[in-house]
Amino acid sequence: MTDYEYASKLYCEIFGLNHDNGDLYMRGMFEALGSLKDREQKALTLYYRDGLSFSRTAELLGVSYNMGKEIVATAMRKLRHISRQRIVSVNLLVEHRDKQILNAEIIIEDLRDEIKELYKMIPDVSSKQDKLAPHLTSINELGLSSYINNLLTRHGFASVEALLKLNSLDFLVGKLGFGISTRNEVIVSMREKGYSEWADRMDAEWNVDCGLPWNTYKSRMFVKYRNQEKPVMESDNNLLAFKMLI
Protein backbone atom coordinates (compact mmCIF):
# COMPACT_ATOMS: atom_id res chain seq x y z
CA MET A 1 0.00 0.00 0.00
CA THR A 2 1.38 3.38 -0.99
CA ASP A 3 1.58 6.38 1.33
CA TYR A 4 -1.34 8.00 -0.50
CA GLU A 5 -3.51 4.88 -0.24
CA TYR A 6 -2.74 4.59 3.48
CA ALA A 7 -3.47 8.28 4.12
CA SER A 8 -6.66 8.09 2.06
CA LYS A 9 -7.85 5.02 3.99
CA LEU A 10 -7.31 6.80 7.31
CA TYR A 11 -9.07 9.91 5.93
CA CYS A 12 -12.13 7.83 5.05
CA GLU A 13 -12.12 6.24 8.53
CA ILE A 14 -11.87 9.67 10.19
CA PHE A 15 -14.78 11.20 8.26
CA GLY A 16 -16.83 8.03 7.64
CA LEU A 17 -16.56 8.28 3.85
CA ASN A 18 -15.87 5.85 1.01
CA HIS A 19 -13.53 8.19 -0.85
CA ASP A 20 -11.45 11.24 0.05
CA ASN A 21 -12.86 13.17 -2.99
CA GLY A 22 -9.61 15.05 -3.40
CA ASP A 23 -9.95 16.67 0.03
CA LEU A 24 -7.07 14.72 1.60
CA TYR A 25 -4.06 16.79 2.62
CA MET A 26 -1.31 14.15 2.81
CA ARG A 27 1.28 16.29 4.56
CA GLY A 28 -1.28 17.12 7.22
CA MET A 29 -2.25 13.46 7.62
CA PHE A 30 1.31 12.36 8.32
CA GLU A 31 1.77 15.36 10.60
CA ALA A 32 -1.30 14.20 12.54
CA LEU A 33 0.05 10.64 12.68
CA GLY A 34 3.36 11.97 13.96
CA SER A 35 1.58 13.56 16.91
CA LEU A 36 0.40 10.13 18.15
CA LYS A 37 2.32 7.86 20.48
CA ASP A 38 4.71 5.42 18.80
CA ARG A 39 2.58 2.42 19.82
CA GLU A 40 -0.55 4.06 18.40
CA GLN A 41 1.20 4.79 15.10
CA LYS A 42 2.41 1.19 14.90
CA ALA A 43 -1.07 -0.15 15.68
CA LEU A 44 -2.62 1.90 12.86
CA THR A 45 0.08 0.79 10.43
CA LEU A 46 -0.42 -2.89 11.27
CA TYR A 47 -4.22 -2.76 11.14
CA TYR A 48 -4.97 -0.27 8.33
CA ARG A 49 -1.84 -0.33 6.15
CA ASP A 50 -0.76 -3.94 6.48
CA GLY A 51 -4.36 -5.19 6.76
CA LEU A 52 -3.70 -7.43 9.76
CA SER A 53 -6.45 -8.61 12.09
CA PHE A 54 -6.91 -7.25 15.60
CA SER A 55 -5.54 -10.50 16.97
CA ARG A 56 -2.32 -10.32 14.89
CA THR A 57 -1.98 -6.58 15.56
CA ALA A 58 -2.25 -7.16 19.31
CA GLU A 59 0.23 -10.02 19.10
CA LEU A 60 2.86 -7.89 17.33
CA LEU A 61 2.28 -5.09 19.81
CA GLY A 62 2.80 -7.54 22.64
CA VAL A 63 -0.57 -6.89 24.24
CA SER A 64 -3.89 -8.69 24.70
CA TYR A 65 -6.57 -8.74 22.00
CA ASN A 66 -8.76 -6.22 23.82
CA MET A 67 -5.82 -3.95 24.54
CA GLY A 68 -4.75 -4.05 20.88
CA LYS A 69 -8.26 -3.15 19.78
CA GLU A 70 -8.37 -0.31 22.35
CA ILE A 71 -5.05 1.11 21.12
CA VAL A 72 -6.37 1.29 17.53
CA ALA A 73 -9.64 2.84 18.71
CA THR A 74 -7.81 5.41 20.84
CA ALA A 75 -5.54 6.38 17.94
CA MET A 76 -8.54 6.87 15.63
CA ARG A 77 -10.37 8.86 18.28
CA LYS A 78 -7.40 11.22 18.49
CA LEU A 79 -7.28 11.59 14.69
CA ARG A 80 -10.99 12.47 14.67
CA HIS A 81 -10.38 15.38 17.06
CA ILE A 82 -11.18 18.69 15.35
CA SER A 83 -7.63 19.97 15.85
CA ARG A 84 -6.34 17.08 13.71
CA GLN A 85 -9.27 17.05 11.29
CA ARG A 86 -8.34 20.61 10.34
CA ILE A 87 -4.89 19.58 9.14
CA VAL A 88 -5.87 16.47 7.16
CA SER A 89 -8.74 18.08 5.20
CA VAL A 90 -8.01 20.75 2.59
CA ASN A 91 -11.45 22.32 2.98
CA LEU A 92 -11.26 22.47 6.78
CA LEU A 93 -7.71 23.81 6.61
CA VAL A 94 -8.71 26.63 4.24
CA GLU A 95 -11.79 27.41 6.31
CA HIS A 96 -9.69 27.58 9.49
CA ARG A 97 -7.06 29.81 7.85
CA ASP A 98 -9.79 32.11 6.51
CA LYS A 99 -11.16 32.49 10.04
CA GLN A 100 -7.68 33.23 11.37
CA ILE A 101 -7.15 35.90 8.70
CA LEU A 102 -10.55 37.42 9.42
CA ASN A 103 -9.83 37.51 13.15
CA ALA A 104 -6.42 39.07 12.49
CA GLU A 105 -8.00 41.75 10.27
CA ILE A 106 -10.55 42.53 13.00
CA ILE A 107 -7.76 42.83 15.60
CA ILE A 108 -5.74 45.11 13.29
CA GLU A 109 -8.76 47.32 12.65
CA ASP A 110 -9.44 47.55 16.41
CA LEU A 111 -5.82 48.53 17.00
CA ARG A 112 -6.06 51.23 14.33
CA ASP A 113 -9.15 52.65 16.03
CA GLU A 114 -7.37 52.63 19.38
CA ILE A 115 -4.36 54.41 17.88
CA LYS A 116 -6.63 57.05 16.36
CA GLU A 117 -8.21 57.62 19.77
CA LEU A 118 -4.78 57.94 21.36
CA TYR A 119 -3.78 60.53 18.77
CA LYS A 120 -6.87 62.55 19.62
CA MET A 121 -5.73 62.60 23.25
CA ILE A 122 -2.37 64.08 22.18
CA PRO A 123 -3.31 67.09 20.01
CA ASP A 124 0.25 68.30 19.49
CA VAL A 125 1.64 64.90 18.50
CA SER A 126 1.96 65.86 14.83
CA SER A 127 3.92 69.00 15.62
CA LYS A 128 6.21 67.01 17.90
CA GLN A 129 6.76 64.48 15.14
CA ASP A 130 7.56 67.29 12.68
CA LYS A 131 10.18 68.65 15.05
CA LEU A 132 11.64 65.24 15.67
CA ALA A 133 11.73 64.09 12.04
CA PRO A 134 14.78 66.14 10.88
CA HIS A 135 16.73 64.98 13.93
CA LEU A 136 15.96 61.34 13.13
CA THR A 137 16.49 61.65 9.38
CA SER A 138 20.00 60.58 8.47
CA ILE A 139 21.88 62.45 5.76
CA ASN A 140 22.06 59.07 3.98
CA GLU A 141 18.31 59.28 3.31
CA LEU A 142 18.69 62.34 1.08
CA GLY A 143 19.92 60.17 -1.79
CA LEU A 144 23.04 62.25 -2.36
CA SER A 145 26.07 60.93 -4.21
CA SER A 146 28.55 58.96 -2.11
CA TYR A 147 31.13 61.73 -2.40
CA ILE A 148 28.80 64.44 -1.05
CA ASN A 149 27.32 62.13 1.56
CA ASN A 150 30.75 61.17 2.94
CA LEU A 151 31.96 64.77 2.83
CA LEU A 152 29.00 66.06 4.83
CA THR A 153 29.15 63.21 7.36
CA ARG A 154 32.88 63.71 7.88
CA HIS A 155 32.31 67.35 8.77
CA GLY A 156 29.51 66.73 11.27
CA PHE A 157 26.44 66.90 9.04
CA ALA A 158 25.14 63.45 9.98
CA SER A 159 21.46 64.43 10.04
CA VAL A 160 19.11 66.69 8.09
CA GLU A 161 18.75 68.76 11.25
CA ALA A 162 22.38 69.92 10.91
CA LEU A 163 21.71 71.24 7.40
CA LEU A 164 18.51 72.97 8.48
CA LYS A 165 20.47 74.98 11.04
CA LEU A 166 22.66 76.55 8.36
CA ASN A 167 22.01 80.23 7.60
CA SER A 168 23.63 79.76 4.21
CA LEU A 169 25.71 77.27 2.27
CA ASP A 170 28.77 79.55 2.29
CA PHE A 171 30.48 77.31 4.83
CA LEU A 172 30.02 74.27 2.59
CA VAL A 173 31.49 76.16 -0.35
CA GLY A 174 34.44 77.64 1.55
CA LYS A 175 35.34 74.85 3.98
CA LEU A 176 34.18 71.72 2.15
CA GLY A 177 34.94 72.96 -1.36
CA PHE A 178 31.42 72.59 -2.74
CA GLY A 179 31.06 73.42 -6.42
CA ILE A 180 27.93 74.73 -8.18
CA SER A 181 26.60 71.27 -9.07
CA THR A 182 27.34 69.89 -5.59
CA ARG A 183 25.61 72.84 -3.95
CA ASN A 184 22.59 72.47 -6.22
CA GLU A 185 22.37 68.72 -5.61
CA VAL A 186 22.01 69.30 -1.86
CA ILE A 187 19.31 71.94 -2.38
CA VAL A 188 17.36 69.78 -4.85
CA SER A 189 17.55 66.73 -2.56
CA MET A 190 16.35 68.72 0.45
CA ARG A 191 13.45 70.13 -1.58
CA GLU A 192 12.45 66.64 -2.75
CA LYS A 193 12.38 65.45 0.87
CA GLY A 194 9.90 68.18 1.77
CA TYR A 195 12.22 70.90 3.09
CA SER A 196 11.14 73.41 0.45
CA GLU A 197 11.29 76.43 2.76
CA TRP A 198 14.95 75.77 3.54
CA ALA A 199 15.75 75.11 -0.14
CA ASP A 200 14.02 78.34 -1.19
CA ARG A 201 16.01 80.27 1.43
CA MET A 202 19.29 78.80 0.17
CA ASP A 203 18.33 79.67 -3.41
CA ALA A 204 17.41 83.20 -2.41
CA GLU A 205 20.67 83.63 -0.51
CA TRP A 206 22.56 82.39 -3.58
CA ASN A 207 20.74 84.83 -5.86
CA VAL A 208 22.01 87.69 -3.70
CA ASP A 209 25.61 86.62 -4.24
CA CYS A 210 25.26 85.49 -7.83
CA GLY A 211 26.59 88.79 -9.16
CA LEU A 212 30.09 87.53 -8.36
CA PRO A 213 31.92 85.14 -10.67
CA TRP A 214 31.80 81.67 -9.11
CA ASN A 215 35.59 81.35 -8.68
CA THR A 216 35.75 84.76 -6.98
CA TYR A 217 32.89 83.86 -4.66
CA LYS A 218 34.42 80.47 -3.85
CA SER A 219 37.82 82.04 -3.12
CA ARG A 220 36.27 84.55 -0.75
CA MET A 221 34.41 81.81 1.08
CA PHE A 222 37.61 79.79 1.39
CA VAL A 223 39.43 82.69 2.97
CA LYS A 224 36.49 83.37 5.26
CA TYR A 225 36.01 79.83 6.52
CA ARG A 226 39.40 78.12 6.20
CA ASN A 227 40.15 78.50 9.94
CA GLN A 228 36.57 77.95 11.12
CA GLU A 229 35.85 74.45 12.38
CA LYS A 230 32.06 74.70 12.24
CA PRO A 231 29.52 76.99 10.53
CA VAL A 232 27.47 79.63 12.31
CA MET A 233 24.10 78.02 13.07
CA GLU A 234 20.76 79.70 13.67
CA SER A 235 21.03 78.92 17.37
CA ASP A 236 24.49 80.58 17.46
CA ASN A 237 23.05 83.76 15.92
CA ASN A 238 20.30 83.82 18.52
CA LEU A 239 22.90 83.53 21.28
CA LEU A 240 24.95 86.39 19.83
CA ALA A 241 21.87 88.59 19.59
CA PHE A 242 21.00 87.83 23.21
CA LYS A 243 24.52 88.74 24.36
CA MET A 244 24.29 92.05 22.50
CA LEU A 245 21.02 92.85 24.27
CA ILE A 246 22.49 92.33 27.73
List the helices and strands and how they pair.
Elements: H1 3-15, H2 26-34, H3 38-49, H4 54-61, H5 65-79, H6 82-88, H7 90-121, H8 125-136, H9 146-154, H10 160-164, H11 170-174, H12 180-192, H13 196-209, H14 214-225, H15 234-245
Helix pairs in contact: 2-6, 3-4, 3-5, 4-5, 6-7, 12-13
Keywords:
disordered C terminus; Arc Repressor Mutant, subunit A; mainly alpha; rod-shaped; 246 residues
Work out the helix count. 15
Number of domains: 2
**Low-confidence segments, ≥5 residues, pLDDT <50?**
125-132, 232-246
- Tally of DSSP β-strands: 0
The helix/strand order is: HHHHHHHHHHHHHHH
| Biggest sheet descriptor | none
Strand content: under 5%
Give a description of the structure.
With 246 residues, the protein is an all-alpha fold. It folds into 2 domains: 3-93, Winged helix-like DNA-binding domain superfamily/Winged helix DNA-binding domain (Arc Repressor Mutant, subunit A), CATH 1.10.10.10; 134-245, no CATH class. The chain has 15 helices and no strands. It has helices at 3-15, 26-34, 38-49, 54-61, 65-79, 82-88, 90-121, 125-136, 146-154, 160-164, 170-174, 180-192, 196-209, 214-225, 234-245. α4 (54-61) crosses α5. The radius of gyration is 38 Å and the shape is rod-shaped.
Brief account:
With 246 residues, the protein is mainly α. 72% of the residues lie in helices and 0% in strands.
